[in-house]
Design goal:
It is built from 2 helices and 8 strands; from the N terminus they run αββββββββα. It is of the alpha/beta class. It has an 8-stranded mixed sheet, with no helix packed on it.
Length: about 160
Amino acid sequence: MNRSQFDLAVGAFVALGILALLFLAMKVGNLTGFDTGTAYVIEARFDNIGGMKVRAPVKSAGVVVGRVESISLDGETYEAVARLRISSAFRFSKDTIATILTSGLLGEQYIGLEPGGVSEYLVQGDRVMKTQSAMVLEKLISQFLFNKAAETPGQTK
């Protein structure tokens, strides 16, 4: 093997490594799986979205049915407004419940949709009326500590 063939092999190996790192970065950043199919956008309002990010998955029964399109703050009610792009292949009833959940070791947050039983379905521009905000670990710990401090010795609940 002469010098130019060796340099070519090393260059190809380095290029493959860079492509693998790029693919991994896109996978971790939720940039893969872009769906160009038809979809409808609905809105869900939460008191607290925790660490939710744009392009976070929207799942139902563990299956990705859409993505978070945008997150904003309503200036009047001070609620977080998440716009969800849902694939047209999936229909959810008007009494669907949207919950912010956490998965994985890295704590990736996603929105879980739990369908209800009403025969009317959400359509473009509708709002999910029942939501459950993210559980904030700091709030839970401080509430636990406050309750423990409020108890006096000798009292039982």
